[in-house]
Amino acid sequence: MEAIDILAFGAHPDDVELTCAGLLIKMGRMGYRTGVVDLTRGEMGTRGTPETRRAEADAAAQVMGLAVRENLGLPDGHIQADTDQKQKVVGAIRKYRPSLLALPYREDPHPDHQNASRLIFESSYLSGLEKYRPEHGAAHRPEKLIYYPGRPGFYETRPSFIVDVSDVFEQRLKAIECYRSQLYDEGSRERPTEISSRDYLDRIIATARYYGVLAGVKYGEPYFCREIIRVNDPMAQFIRGVSGDMRNAE
Length: 250
Known about the structure:
Blueprint: E1 6-10, H1 15-19, H2 21-29, E2 34-40, H3 50-64, E3 68-74, H4 83-96, E4 100-104, H5 111-126, E5 144-148, E6 161-164, H6 169-177, H7 200-215, E7 220-223, H8 234-238
Parallel strand pairs: 1-2, 1-4, 2-3, 4-5
Antiparallel strand pairs: 6-7
Helix pairs in contact: 3-6, 4-5
């Protein structure tokens, strides 16, 4: 299988769409191979069923233009960094061999998201050890981990960087809207949740506008890194209209 350039992990189907779909869509348009691994089927969710959420995830994958999407079938509500779950995550990392790996930020009000962050972080390290479970594939460690935040307003730390997703934001909303079982439905008799509230999509839009304002663009997605970000070419990184190799300039 051809390696995936950018792989995003989510604790539940729809987590990636609600947080970092813009990055995946944008990178896909630029020619990178993108993928998603959902840890659980969302079987503990208040609304919908694992079957409906699987169909919704498949539809969203088409909207996002993903090269791959896989569900590891870990127990919803019981994600933990134990040996069995690490082996499954290591297997996925070694299978897809991403250069960039996106995962939930370690601080989150949802325990599954917190535990998923630790599970994926530890598994990404173990995946690079040749002597760790070689039966699960050849060793591979992503070059960089980036963390996406979950609930808006929960984070006091400024993001390490913001991705301009203005040109793909409408497509991101279409991916979110694939999850009809989770969103507002006036005729639904299922118990309401935060995501199913009438104004939830408005909050998604407002959050993207907020981070866009911080970055000087219309819509932005925030990301965090544990390490200092190294920049090889500040001109190409920070100056508009400058890109590529300047060594041949007169």
